[in-house]
Amino acid sequence: MTDVSFGPQPGKGGPKSEYLAMVRQKRLYGSIILMIFVLMMISGFQVAQDRNAGDFVPGLKHLFDFPAEVLGEAWTNRAAIPGLIAAHFPSLVETVNIAAVSTLVGALMAMVIAPLATRGLAPWPRLIPVFRRVLDVLRAFPEIIIALVLIYILGGGPVPAMIAIALHTAGALGKMFSEVAENADLKPMEGLASVGANWTQRMWVGLLPQVAPDWFSYVLQRFEINIRASAILGFVGSGGIGYDLKIAMQWGQGRYDQVVAIFLLLFVTIVVVDQLSSHYRTTLVKGRAT
Amino acid sequence: MTTMVMSDLRGQVDRLFRRKRLAAFGVPAVVLAYLVYIFIAFDVAGLADRARMDNARILMSDFWSFKTHVTQDNRNGEVVVAIEGETKGTYPPGMLPDWVTMADGVTTIDLGRGHVVVYDATGAHYTVPGYGTVSAVSEGGKVVLDAPEPLPDWIEVAENRIQVTTNQGRFSVTRNKTETFRYQPGWELWFFTLDSPFYGKSSFELAQMAIWGDRVDPDITNLAHMGSDFWNNAMWRHKDVAWAISETILMAFLGTFMAAIIALPMAFVAASNFSRFGALRFAMRRVFDFVRGVDALIWTIVLARAFGPGPMTGALAIMITDTGAFGKQFSETLENIDEKQVEGIRSTGANAVQRARFGVIPQITPVLLGQILYSFESNTRSATIIGAIVGGGIGLLLTQAISTQKDWEEVAYYMVLIILMVIVIDTISGWIRRRLIRG
Prior knowledge:
- The structure holds 2 protein chains of 2 kinds.
- Chain A is mainly α.
- Chain A folds into 2 domains: 2-48; 69-289, MetI-like fold (Orthogonal Bundle), CATH 1.10.3720.
- Helix content of chain A is 82%, strand content 0%.
- Chain A has 12 helices and no strands.
- In chain A, α4 (65-76) packs across α12 (256-289).
- Chain A is extended, with a radius of gyration of 27 Å.
- Chain B is an alpha+beta fold.
- Chain B has helices spanning 2-41, 47-50, 53-64, 203-211, 222-231, 238-270, 278-307, 311-335, 339-347, 352-390, 393-404, 408-438; strands spanning 65-73, 79-83, 100-103, 106-112, 115-120, 123-128, 132-139, 142-146, 155-158, 161-166, 169-174, 177-185.
- In chain B, β3 and β4 (106-112) form a beta hairpin.
- In chain B, α3 crosses α12 (408-438), α8 (311-335) packs antiparallel against α10 (352-390) and α10 (352-390) runs antiparallel to α12.
- The longest helix of chain B has 40 residues, at 2-41.
- Chain B is extended, with a radius of gyration of 33 Å.
- In chain B, 32% of the residues are buried.
- The interface between A and B is large, with 60 and 63 residues.
């Protein structure tokens, strides 16, 4: 108290030295945290390297061996590549279809769950935590688990991958949809309620037009993520271009022209979808700003 | 003049409404048409035939129960009792569960609720209350059934196999072996395997042994003995599982943070307000696009060839993929910073590095850390999948357990662990992110 009323005690450095002491302390803490972090990174990398089949430095020299081998073989067989691209195109369509359907189904599920989990919109406010936990659980399940289990039950094919990705998408989109819906203007909904609209009508006519651009931009982003996911699930499980890639890789030498054809298909698809979605997302968000 | 504007406006509104009406019906129609196409293309209708509900039942029952096999080799009459029919779960000689008795070549298995199976010299007999006794006798290389007629549908008789399935268990006889399966709830042997001196003890007894009991092994304390028996449990492999989980988290951690460290300087080059050279900026952005376009799957395959299977390969794969994503995100963040703070630092005569250190980094740190932590969360999930491809971590254990098609209790265990891992990481990183936002 006295210090505050009568200023700093004589003999001590005053506010300046106290400030500098605080800065020093902050820097000390910061550097300690940084050192711990660096140590964690280094020791973690050591552990990872010890448990790895090959070490980092020797492997680095061979990093380009495989791509060189693949590209070399593909270059000698380059005439065959357009044909192979055409041959694998149906698998690509399947992969894209898996991604599209699962995005669609997941988005539809999220559209239903999101308002139920949003404060101010939910018809049963007491159940909001329940629906939020449902979304959390859907998100927590890695797709591979659901996909592998469903492959065991349903057999191979695109459906297990589709269901797995759709469930995860529902969880991820549900959370984002609900965050957007939280900021929606409630007045249109109130107006609709005053003329006797039921909950579904209020959401459909009052909420949806407000949130549609944001929701749609999240859906596009998810579609992009899901294409990658569906290619990977194909590699681990079955179906689509990922599976073709796995088969071609297992053959190894002699099929590298196929590997290159599949790489090309996948690369071009991902880049195109990536560019399209980022283009549309900017238009959607900018369009709303004007 | 006004009427012209009015009519023009009216026309515009009409057109707008027509378009809206078209969209209101057109969009659902297109979605529906697409779903119908998928329904046909993915052969959803044929799914019911292909679906194997018995597999689903096995999976579900393994989630909460275990089965004990009582197997008699019909060629030499030897009887083996084994949990899940595995060697590491086999009861050693002289040790039997309390519901199996063996005396004078007669094995009696009490399945509970009056269901009793007896293996003796004449064959195997299953007494089902309210029905009678099902006898299966091996005669001259064939299995002959003797049961009250008419046969109910839970008795399956095939050429050389008889199977009885009841709520209490399953009983199957072939020429070579007679097997009885009893299902019990729980994950047996989760703590200690049968060869451990601590098997079958209650937690109270265990506590007693740990605190003042005599040493089972004179060399080590009981507590350490318990710890090592649990850690080296051959059935559930706690040690391997713990390593696998840490490998998965390690892959995500190393991959995410290495990517962030690499991407940050690259993002400065790609951000329009820091980089003066348009060509360099353009090149850097194309690098990001390329890295993201090649996709984690392909990077993983290429890296696995160079570094062999293991967690480091997985970490590097995550690192490369995320470098592209971070590069793009970070450069966008850098373009949106507040220039006034940089201006202030510049006015004191600071050079470019000092401006970046004191004017830019403090502004973007919370945003960047938020993005990094968010992708750390999603990378713990990806690390499971990448682990399955490169052969490291819990993803490998999971795919191995699934491919054996019988260790479903392990699959269930790994699934639970993965989900717990994801939830824990999500919670921790969510907590840190909230603290960062609050400042």
